[in-house]
């Protein structure tokens, strides 16, 4: 029997892959299947951002005289309905997982002590183990994080209603996404970023994303000294002495691997379980995948890691490859990007064409951005990014094509859907033409 600990993207996909290959698989999940992606992170952001975008589009069309009003938000109703949909999705995943042949055990903790496996207090025999116990929010060490009204993405569902003033602490994608959502809902939002907000993004993509955060106060290179309050949060005190009034504070300060239940394995300083490229841990026949092994903390990476672990458990040597895995961020538009190979090449950027979701924004002089990176010697596409409605779907396919070695010349034969907000195809054709002239 193979025991899988954790029913998130890595554990569930790994368990199903094993069961479909004929293995006897027992998946142990303490709560509902689907992991944080379904219950607190990805799907929650999708749900909230759908409402945020609707409000923003309505606001744009009201300003143009097309609509006579902008709808108001009932935050308690949003939260209630989100939970209902999440429960439905979880039940669908449960049925899908069981139909693949996986035995699912709910309400018990799976634990490891070296190569010994426990489900609750009972030790069980296992030929192999896949540990996919996920992560939890990283909570900073400054004072006040335990004051009522201070939330992480995990505890945000307990927020009773929209705050008038919210401070978001963090400088990454999640901080930007939640700031955008609550600003669209009508809250006054301030972001406090220790470094540059979205500093890892390409400068042009970052500039485009910041357009979607218009109206959000952004303090960069700023350190939080403490969160102030008593029975309720009152403010965020910065290291330079500035005090930001707040009715709610959201800590979007990263993730920490949840590996406390996995003992006897080699771990990094942050608790991440150390694995090789085949997802093997330091203990024979014990594998790990997903957030518990540390960055990149991406659902598509976790899914693939789970499958790679399963393949190796089955004796089919498979190596995890992170090249071309797309990353995305949801603001007013989708922002998505993927790269392969080393840095370098020539970068081309251009405004994106108007299409579904961006037509009315043309009145304000903006319809998004497309960008590619090309190896001028071979014409190979080695990077692509887009800040447009639908960018996430586009980059899923482009990431795969880039891994297969697609060149900008190959785009001459592609006939794309119209109307579309995608500007990558046109940029690729332009780059191909420039390379032909150079030759």
Automatic annotation (TrEMBL):
InterPro entries named among the record's database cross-references = FAD/NAD-bd_sf (IPR036188), FAD/NAD-binding_dom (IPR023753), FAD/NAD-linked_Rdtase_dimer_sf (IPR016156)
One Pfam family linked to the record = Pyr_redox_2
Q: Which Gene3D superfamilies match?
A: 3.30.390.30, FAD/NAD(P)-binding domain (3.50.50.60)
Q: What are the entry keywords?
A: FAD, Flavoprotein
Tell me which SUPFAM superfamilies the record gives.
Answer: FAD/NAD(P)-binding domain, FAD/NAD-linked reductases, dimerisation (C-terminal) domain
User: Which intervals hold domain FAD/NAD(P)-binding?
Assistant: 2-306
> Organism's domain of life?
Archaea
Do you know which PANTHER family this protein is assigned to? MERCURIC REDUCTASE
Q: What is this protein called?
A: NAD(P)/FAD-dependent oxidoreductase
Species name = Methanoculleus oceani
